[in-house]
From TrEMBL:
SUPFAM superfamilies: NAD(P)-binding Rossmann-fold domains. It comes from the Bacteria. InterPro entries: NAD(P)-bd_dom_sf, SDR_fam. This is SDR family NAD(P)-dependent oxidoreductase. It comes from Rhodococcus oxybenzonivorans.
Amino acid sequence: MSRSALITGASRGIGRGIATRLAEAGYGLTLSARDAERLEVVADELRAAGAKEVVVVAGDLADDASAGRVVTAHADTFGSLNALVLNAGVGTAGPIGEFPMRRFAKSVDVNLRAPFSLL
């Protein structure tokens, strides 16, 4: 049986590094991030590194529909999930009194609500 993983924030940094390790171990991967072009480049690298199959789903996890597309794409391709890497996240620095509510809402959506949507 093939192993599969879904990785958010997979186009760079820690998410890309984890995806590379899983590819080298032969996992099938579903990658999610906002930048479709960057995801395609990473997907090609992961296939070359040994990933059995790579599915790319670009979108903003603050949007419920994007999270749903990621889950559906993974389920349609792999059927099961062996690893879920919740690497996507946003934050804002500065005094709380100057923290705009739209940024607060985005932080909650990406950092808290999206992970539950992906389960």
